[in-house]
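HUMAN:
Sorry, I am quite new to this. Are you able to go through these amino acid letters and fold codes? The numbers rather puzzle me.
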Amino acid sequence: MTSTGSVTASWLRPIPPGAAPSLVRAGHLGHTGRRLGDLVQGRPPGVTGSQWSTAGRASLDLVVCAADTGLPRFAVRFTAPAPDGSAARRSERLTDAVCVAVGLPLVRVESPTLGGAEQVRRFVEYVLDARAYADGTDPDGGDTVGFRDIIGRLPDGRRGPVNDLGALARVEAVEAYVAGRIADPIVRGLHVRWTDGPAEGWAWAEVRPGRCLLERVRLTSRGFSCGVDPGRLAEDLAAVALGERLRDLDGAAPSLLDRDELLRRVRALAARRDSFDGGFAFDHLCAD
């Protein structure tokens, strides 16, 4: 089973029935253009006026509500990475605190590349489908194949995991290699889960000999689960972001990393394995 956290009806305000949704899927309605303050009936306890003023203005890319009641079930927010100690990072912490106080799970995707309306919509459709699948399966009854591991026909005709969000990017990398646009057709990646923190996914491809394009995504999903491991989901999102960058290789050129520098970064991440839930499962990527 999955969870979207407990919705505190006394604090969350239903979205009126007359509001036209931008998404209808699996018994849920999705609404864009909402601020956190629009969803909450007053300042929750334990939140100061200054904190509420900041968090209440936080823009949410998509608010997903139960179709029958209009009550928010979770919200999604795509943001650019912000340095620790910055005003943006402080605002995110305040937003998290208010969401916890009112029982609204907030799924945050941090990426310098992702965040377009279509990308947000596809992501929400994916997690709703994954949750519906998980709710309809029973591992104790022999249902052992997770949503992310379902095998079927991929966009290039091969068989593989059809619910890999990065599948199209992997196909595009092969096509770019065949066309002579990149040096290696393989999209590589890794993921970790920081203890009491976000999941982080990396994806990269060798675009020029010895020069790689790297995308990193952080996924925070407190109080929310869709049945797909957050680390794998973050890595798949990083592959999606990489696919976006591969479509504009001229624009990506200044961001290319030397392969040795990428290896150094992977090893530096591996050295922090004690900070991860589940350790570091990608030591094979640390070899020369």
